[in-house]
Design goal:
By secondary structure, the protein is mainly alpha-helical. It folds into two domains: 57 residues, no CATH class; 77 residues, Cytochrome Bc1 Complex, Chain D, domain 2 (Orthogonal Bundle). 64% of the residues lie in helices and 5% in strands. It is built from seven helices and three strands, in the order αααβββαααα. It has a three-stranded mixed sheet, with no helix packed on it. Bound molecules: heme C (HEC).
């Protein structure tokens, strides 16, 4: 289990213990077992939601990347799904051909991977770069 998820579970379970005791004192009609099941359920839900958003923070958002692709004028030189420029080639299935690591490196410094590269160096934040790479990785023939 992720360390974050583990600590989160412990925190939620800790809260659960407190409310269990409260209910007990107030003479609530909930059975301990039910509360425990509920608390564990919530912990798992929150845990997976959190690790999901963590993964997204690392991998970037393909939706934002798609917006950036037009905002940064990539389409002037690149075709995706039949529209765009021809100079840079078709990127409609670049997600099948390249991996995220290659794309990230290439965008930062095209010449480091293709000595003859004519592609301009990407200008933008690391976050924007991650979003763009997430979008590029989503461009696959199978979709
Ligand atoms: C001025 C034209 C131009 C623009 C603008 C441009 N590119 Fe390119 N790009 C190229 C060319 C030309 C290549 C072919 C390889 C080379 O010469 O670097 C290329 C190659 C690529 C490749 C590698 C494809 C492969 O599998 O070999 C990716 C990925 C890519 N571009 C993404 C982008 C993205 C994302 C943007 C917008 C931020 C962008 N490009 C903007 C010209 C451009």
């Amino acid at each position: 289990m992720d360390y974050e998820v583990y600590t989160l579970c412990r925190r939620v379970l800790g809260e659960g213990m407190k409310s269990k005791i409260n209910l007990f004192i107030k003479g609530g009609s909930f059975e301990m077992k039910h509360i425990l099941v509920l608390v564990i359920g919530i912990a798992i839900l929150m845990g997976s939601a959190m690790s999901g958003s963590l993964a997204q923070a690392q991998e970037g958002s393909a939706d934002k990347g798609k917006e950036l692709f037009s905002a940064k004028k990539c389409g002037l030189c690149h075709t995706v799904d039949g529209s765009g420029g021809k100079k840079g080639g078709d990127l409609s299935d670049v997600g099948d051909k390249r991996d995220a690591e290659w794309l990230t490196k290439y965008m930062k410094d095209p010449k480091s991977l293709l000595p003859e590269a004519k592609m301009p160096v990407f200008k933008g934040s690391d976050e924007e770069l991650q979003d763009l790479v997430a979008y590029l990785m989503s461009l696959k023939k199978a979709n």
